[in-house]
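Lab notebook: predicted structure, single chain.

Context: the supervisor wants predicted structures on file for every construct in the current expression panel, including those that have not yet been purified. This is the next one on the list. No modifications to the sequence; it matches the entry in the shared construct table.
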Amino acid sequence: MSVSVYVMKNQMFEREWFRLDNAAKIYPASRSSRWNAVFRMSAVLKEEVNPEILQQALDDIIDRFPTFRMTLKKGFFWYYFQYLTDKPLIMEEKTCPCAMMPLTGRDYVFRVLYHSHRISVEVFHSITDGTGNINFLKTLLLRYCELSGATVADVGDILHYDDNPVPEEVEDSFKRNIDKSKGMLPRTEPKAYQINGQHEKRGILNVTQGSMPFSQLHATAKSYGLTVNTYLTAVLSYALLKRELYENKSRKKPIRVQVPINLRKIFPSVTLRNFAGYYNTTISPVEQTFEEVAATLDAQLKENITPDYCQKFINSNVSLEKVPVIRVAPRFLKTFFMNISFYLMGERVMSCAFSNIGNVNTPQEMYDYIDRFEFVLGPQKYMGNAMTCASYNGRTVVTFSRTTKDPILEREFFKILTEQGIDVTINANRG
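Prediction complete. Output recorded below exactly as produced.
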């Protein structure tokens, strides 16, 4: 394989290619004509975006993130990443959020979009997770604000574009933290309840956002003895439960919400690649009060999201690719088996995914430029709905994305929040 290599600031990254991390391998293998695992992080500015400044900002920061400056290629045994020499170009947003990412082997597998006051970074999940994406976006915004006239004395936890990347930022932290002696998780769970609905045409993603004061959200969560994350998981689960009971099926399925875990908070890692786990909360499909649902979920999350669980999660993820037969199998056979695995152990066993990026911190000087942050999950392969959350400067934005026509879940969710005294302002991208 012979390709030209662009000149990095740090010579340790002068490599033509490298392997996908452990979590990244499932996405190209499981993609379809409607789904290829794209998600976005956005910042809504207080003034309209200046495209020339945004392009300059992207030019200035791209070498700080070597894991973004790449395309996805097909090898005989595995997919792999190969560096690109052409600079990435910003694009004006003209389609629905999280449109399909072309995996041509020639183009970038992330994009920077702008529209009106919004700057968005959409990525194919193989290159990074939510933590990596928000780090990239914050660095881009820092440079954009500086080019727009801001003087930032202390950048805080933002990765500065003038700094050299370090090797730990590009490592596969799954492989480094495997410990087979701690065991693995069971691989099978029964199917979960999912809301059915009439599907939209291909390429359409309906996005509904509810903006609310973080202080109200925090106070309400605290009144139930919950964290904000657990409270929102409980509201989502309760909304799903009410819908399940309303449909009055003869054979009911459990309500299961997938909650991501940032493994960097448990294992020492600063990787900008994928390093997240997940836990599936479970609620029985029987009549319950919100307080009962909340108490059940609070206990589940406290008892199960532990270092031991996360270690077993890592072991389970890494173990499959280390099976000798799979290691030597050609890529098309690996793709076949991963597709089956994703069907049996992926979205079919959960009712909805919920991902909370938490409170986004920026230097005080950037508050004059940024109004809020948003987080959107793209179309899911088998589920019709997904939910995310991002908070910034006293405001929280909860976002629902769906590929079905009717806003069944978000309508019930925001109704519950409103009934519990939270002031919610709702916006939607379509109708």
